[in-house]
Amino acid sequence: MKTKKVLKNSVDIVMTLALLCLMAYQVTGESLHEWIGIGMTAVLIVHHFLNIKWYGSLFKGKYNANRIISTATNTLLLASVALTAFCGMSMSNHAVPFLYGMSDMVFARTAHLALSFWSFVLMGFHTGLHLPTVTAKLKPNKAVRIVCATAFTVLAGVGLWLFIKNGIPDYIFFKTHFAFLDYDKAAVLVFLENLAIEFFFAFLGANAVRFIRSLSKKDEVKKKLFAPLVCVLIAVLIGIIPGMITPKSGTEPEWNVPQNVVLDQADTN
């Protein structure tokens, strides 16, 4: 059982790293992007094989709020990743060119762009849902808890700010059909930005679990009930206020249009 647990954790880490690489197209380039996508698809299959018991438990037991959110997130994530992989293989020029044209190209390009970011968002939220359980054994003192909560809230706010600044809301809601990427940005900065964005959604997931657990605790412990909500609210304010006060250029807010960007060449073929 210990070996299986180590294997599960290793697979989860590999999937997270692969996803971060997939979201850094301007760093990896088209060919490597495709091969990483194929690799992640394979690892994802292994992940579900290792967690096959989850499917058997879907129709057993009662569904509380935490289980409903977790099941819904897992289902949406699976569907999103599967469709992203399908659309990606339909456009493949390097890894699996024999699958090129499996679906309509316009649909494949539009869906692949939007669903890849949905997968990114849902993966972060999915990770966050498990963080309280992973860190349950940690018993930091009050001072450490306050420092960590403050740092995590600020980092999450920065992640939301980057999420908006890089125009990702337009991608996930199908408002933009082409990826605008800054090829001049340093690779390390691209990965750090993606990591911060991912952290924001993990932060949301972790605080959602904390809030739900607080609801079920005894009255004397419920004084911490609104702490997760306050942290999320502060993070959201940190994320949206810079965009609201940034001077506008033309008719579009600067925080909705990434600066010094280049149209993703894969979307012009």
What descriptors fit this protein?
1% strand, 269 residues, 68% helix, disordered C terminus, 9 helices, globular, mainly alpha
Task: Summarize the model shown.
By secondary structure, the chain is mostly helical. It is built from 9 helices and 2 strands, in the order αααααααβααβ. It has one domain.
In terms of DSSP E residues, the strand content is under 5%
Radius of gyration equals: 20 Å
User: What is the N-to-C succession of helices and strands?
Assistant: HHHHHHHEHHE
Number of helices: 9
Largest sheet: 2 strands, antiparallel
Low-confidence stretches: 249-269
Strand order of the largest sheet: 1-2
Question: How many beta strands in the DSSP annotation?
Answer: 2
Mean pLDDT: 86
C-alpha geometry: globular
> How many separate domains make up the residues?
1
Helix content: 55-70%
Span between termini: 48 Å
Helix-strand makeup class = mainly alpha
